[in-house]
Amino acid sequence: MKKQLIVLSALASVLAFGQAALAAENVQGENYSQKAASLIESAAVTEYQVTWNAVSGVANYKIKIVRVDNPDPPIVPVIDLGTERVFKDVPYLKSNTQYRVWVAAYDSKGKLLAQKTEVKTTAGEIGGIIRWNLGSLN
User: Which span out of 7-16, 38-47, 94-103 was modeled with the highest average pLDDT?
Assistant: First the structure.
C-alpha cells in the first residue's frame, strides 16, 4: 500500500511539472508573438515602389528584385507587368540593405527593347512611400 502511494505521488508530481512546463511555454509563445507583431508593425510603415520611364513600342515590362548579399531566392522573381510602369507589390525589405532591381522592356514578339539594372539601398524605418525611379531603360 505504501509503495502504491509513493508511485501515485510521484506520478502526480510529474503531471504537475508537465502542466507547469506547458504553461511556461505558452507564455513564452505569447511573448514571441507580441514581439513578432511589433516588428511587423514597425516594418510595415515603409512602402517601396519601383518606377521607370516609358519605352516606345513596348508590349510588356518585366521586373526582378534580389538582395545583393543573398540573391537566391529572389525577393521578387521575374514578373511580367504588362505595360504597367509602377511596381507597387514590393514585399517587406530589410532596412539598410542593398537590393538589385532589374527592369526590362519587350516588344510584342518578345524582343528585348531595353533594360536596366540598379542597386538600391533601403532606408531606415522612416515611414511613407519611397519610390525608386530607375529613369530611362537602356
Answer: 94-103
Instruction: Give the per-residue pLDDT at 128.
Output: 80
Rounded distance between C-alpha atoms, residue 112 and residue 130, angstroms = 28
Strand partners, 79: 63
CB atoms within 10 A of CB 87: 20
C-alpha cell at 103: 527592369
- Nearest-angstrom CA–CA distance, 125 and 123: 6
Cell numbers describing residue 89 = 507589390
Please report the pLDDT score of residue 1 as a whole number: 53
First to last CA, the chain: 90
What is the tens place of the pLDDT at every residue in 104-130?
Answer: 999 999 999 999 999 999 877 667 888
Q: Three cell numbers at 132?
A: 525608386
Pair 62, 103: CB distance under 8 Å: yes
Residue 50 reports pLDDT greater than 70: yes
Beta strand ranges found along the chain (DSSP E): 46-51, 60-67, 76-82, 86-87, 98-106, 112-121, 128-133
